[in-house]
Automatic annotation (TrEMBL), chain A:
Residues 1-123 form the Aconitase A/isopropylmalate dehydratase small subunit swivel domain. It comes from the Bacteria. Heterodimer of LeuC and LeuD. GO terms for molecular function: 3-isopropylmalate dehydratase activity. Belongs to the LeuD family. LeuD type 1 subfamily. The keyword Transmembrane does not apply. This is 3-isopropylmalate dehydratase small subunit. Keywords: Amino-acid biosynthesis, Branched-chain amino acid biosynthesis, Leucine biosynthesis, Lyase. It catalyses: (2R,3S)-3-isopropylmalate = (2S)-2-isopropylmalate. NCBIfam families: leuD, PRK01641.1. It comes from Maritimibacter fusiformis.
From TrEMBL, chain B:
Heterodimer of LeuC and LeuD. Its EC number is 4.2.1.33. Pathway: Amino-acid biosynthesis; L-leucine biosynthesis; L-leucine from 3-methyl-2-oxobutanoate: step 2/4. Its cofactor is [4Fe-4S] cluster. PROSITE patterns: ACONITASE_1, ACONITASE_2. Pfam families: Aconitase (PF00330). It is an enzyme of class 4 (lyase). This is 3-isopropylmalate dehydratase large subunit. GO terms for molecular function: 3-isopropylmalate dehydratase activity; 4 iron, 4 sulfur cluster binding; metal ion binding. Binds 1 [4Fe-4S] cluster per subunit. InterPro entries: 3-IsopropMal_deHydase_lsu (IPR004430), Acnase/IPM_dHydase_lsu_aba_1/3 (IPR015931), Acoase/IPM_deHydtase_lsu_aba (IPR001030), Aconitase_4Fe-4S_BS (IPR018136), Aconitase_4Fe-4S_dom (IPR036008), IPM_dehydratase_rel_enz (IPR050067), IPMI_cat (IPR033941).
Length: 201, 467
């Protein structure tokens, strides 16, 4: 997994609340057996009409946001289906950080497995960043994971919280499975205990 | 120290390792797998040269893509769907996990097959690469959906990296009124808490109205916990649970049954347990409900009218404008005057035998309205077999409904079972998102009885008028 340290890029504003994973990547694209290549279909039904033409009003189709690397989103981003295709599609498009007042649980987890940093902030700070994002491509934001800080295009800084373990994994691009397998002895010991206590499982 | 909740007890019994910052390795007792979210996980394992850690605790069944038409033996037409199902077939056979292929009578929706076969038991940890894994919480099992990277993690290690959620109690006091069902309870709760109200929590549903529910009804309630944003929904196991579990193919037998039962009986929240959030609803105040918008929180009693954007505040105003436009609805329209083109009965929310009985009760001796197509899709091959044995299938066919084979079908429309653009559907499934049941399709979530009533009248209908 690619490491995440510091990112300076264009942020796209998506103020709609409850953007669900069906919107992020509609089900027709779940039929792939690969992880890559989903970026062109990110937000497909909002981004293209039935004939496959771009809908000019959609934020990521606007010239100033085509290269966005950050999304500032409305409440409860990523709700609904557990599909990891949602972060795969975001990542494939080039999105590396998403900022909102809240995220759905499974989506939030899935982001970290794919090098995407989801940031939860209070409403007034999200509003401020949303307004900054609305300024377009010259308004580049900086997300600094090491110092847990976002800098707006005006130089204002906003601190954010993040779980230390997740931060460590993201900053070092660590693979969860490898880390867990280092604890194999604990897992084996648990299995032995559980076999005694709950042999029917 | 205060007592423990049911969630605390199951959690504590499954921590295989705890780091200093509270990050745990949670041991997983049952891992359910379907064809859509697993191919990349198996591929990842193979590429890393890793093995499935506990094949005997892993159960696979194809459900999302499988055709539900009677001629499905002839294979899957759509190439990508076929490749996905074939990939599951190959992965299951190569790794030696339990597997119910398409032509097995036990095949069905993964969340219906698990409980039916006795794989899901009280006190277990159950995961699946599917958000509606919450369904299994009905047994007092800690069950939740995971992403594909986590599927790979569980395959490789039989554990998940987790931090504990907070405890939320949802109590439904008193008794339900006639015509009000488990589906109405779970939708009414989401209507009250919103789709993010449960975020960060594991919910335990309790109270007289929950105790009174059958296992089928409890599964319906827990199924939609995820729609309220919760990591999982739980209901403490009791005699109803034990009765359901006993004798199932993979349930414990003999002395093991007795040992299991003794432990299961301890799986209740202590009286002095700590709750981070408590919600109470009076069962008496719950009406048969429907959704009018494109979020499961857009819930109202069938007796209400389509709301207006001005009835809301904040970001929801825009969302409601967009939803009404998408749904083709005008504020002020009585919900029971909304005409439907299609009715879908099925899914892991309402595809069990009891749901089909409810539908049959309403349809018996009646006809599906002209111009309405009704699709009834059992949750598993065994549910289908039972519905035929009980004569329900005859009622469905006589009414003019399509009686299908088991699968997810029009719940998410990955196979050809889809709505056409702007087609409107009364559906017993769990999500009314834009495009969920077909591009530009319009979904109203309802209980099975309400779905049947809509099929007969051709518009959303208060099921109590037909009882
Ligand atoms: S029936 Fe619907 S909700 Fe349930 S597993 Fe299938 S697609 Fe998901």
């Amino acid at each position: 997994m690619e490491k995440f340290e510091k990112l300076t890029g264009v942020a796209a504003p998506m103020p709609l609340v409850n953007i669900d994973t069906d919107m992020i990547i509609p089900k027709v694209f779940l039929k792939t057996i690969k992880r890559s290549g989903l970026g062109v279909n990110l937000f497909d039904e909002m981004r293209y009409d039935r004939e496959g033409n771009e809908i000019p009003d959609f934020v990521l189709n606007k010239p100033q946001y085509r290269d966005a690397e950050i999304i500032v989103a409305g409440d409860n981003f990523g709700c609904g289906s557990s599909r990891e295709h949602a972060p795969w599609a975001l990542r494939d498009f080039g999105i590396k950080a998403v900022i909102s007042t809240s995220f759905a649980d499974i989506f939030y987890n899935n982001c970290f497995k794919n090098g995407i940093l989801p940031i939860v902030l209070p409403r007034d700070e999200v509003d401020l960043l949303m307004a900054d994002a609305e300024k377009g491509q010259n308004a580049r934001m900086t997300v600094d994971l090491e110092n847990q800080e976002i800098t707006t295009s005006d130089g204002e800084t906003i601190a954010f919280e993040i779980d230390p373990f997740r931060k460590h994994c993201l900053m070092n691009g660590l693979d969860d499975i490898g880390l867990t397998l280092e604890k194999k002895a604990s897992i084996d010991a648990f299995e032995a205990r559980a076999a005694e206590a709950r042999p029917w499982v | 120290m205060s007592g423990k909740t049911l969630y605390d007890k199951i959690w504590d019994a499954h921590v295989a390792h705890e780091a200093e910052d509270g990050t745990c390795l949670l041991y997983i007792d049952r891992h359910l797998v379907h064809e859509v979210t697993s191919p990349q996980a198996f591929e990842g394992l193979r590429m890393a040269g890793r093995k499935v850690h506990a094949p005997d605790k892993t159960i696979a069944v194809p459900d999302h893509n499988v055709p539900t038409t009677l001629d499905r033996a002839k294979g899957i037409e759509n190439e990508e769907s076929r490749i996905q199902v074939e990939a599951l077939d190959r992965n299951a056979r190569e790794t030696g996990i339990h597997y119910y292929p398409v032509d097995d009578i036990r095949q069905g929706i993964v969340h219906i097959v698990g409980p039916e076969q006795g794989w899901t038991l009280p006190g277990m940890t159950v995961v699946c690469g599917d958000s509606h894994t919450a369904t299994h919480g009905a047994f007092g099992a800690l069950a939740h959906g995971i992403g594909t990277s986590e599927v790979e993690h569980v395959l490789a290690t039989q554990t998940l990296i987790q931090k504990k959620s907070k405890n939320m109690k949802v109590e439904i006091t008193g008794k339900l009124k006639p015509g009000v069902t488990a589906k109405d309870i779970t939708m009414a709760v989401i209507g009250k808490t919103g789709t993010a109200g449960g975020t960060g929590y594991v919910i335990e549903y309790c109270g007289e109205a929950i105790r009174d529910l059958s296992m089928e009804g409890r599964m319906t309630v827990c199924n939609m916990a995820i729609e309220g944003g919760a990591r999982a929904g739980l209901i403490a196991p009791d005699e109803t649970t034990f009765e359901y579990v006993k004798g199932r193919p993979h349930a414990p037998k003999g002395a093991q049954w007795e040992a299991a039962l003794a432990w299961w009986k301890t799986l209740v929240s202590d009286d002095d347990a700590h709750w981070d959030k408590v919600i109470t609803l009076d069962a008496d105040e719950i009406e048969p409900v429907v959704t009018w918008g494109t979020s499961p929180e857009d819930v109202l009693p069938i007796t209400a009218k389509v709301p207006a954007p001005e009835d809301f505040t904040g970001g929801k105003v825009e969302a409601v404008k967009r939803a009404l436009d998408y749904m083709g609805l005008t504020p002020g329209t009585p919900l029971n005057e909304i005409k439907v083109d299609a009715v879908f009965v099925g899914s892991c929310t309402n595809g069990r035998i009891e749901d089909l009985r409810e539908v049959a009760k309403i349809l018996d001796g009646k006809k599906v309205a002209d111009g309405v197509r009704m699709m009834i899709v059992p949750g598993s091959g065994l549910v289908r077999e039972q519905a035929e044995a009980e004569g329900l299938a005859d009622i469905f066919k006589a009414a003019g409904a399509e009686w299908r084979l088991a699968g997810c079908s029009m719940c998410l429309a990955m196979n050809p079972d889809q709505l056409a653009p702007e087609e409107r559907c009364a559906s017993t499934s769990n999500r009314n998102f834009e495009g969920r049941q077909g591009y530009k399709g319009r979904t109203h979530l309802v209980s099975p009885g309400m779905a049947a009533a809509a099929a007969v009248t051709g518009h959303l209908t208060d099921v109590r008028e037909m009882m």
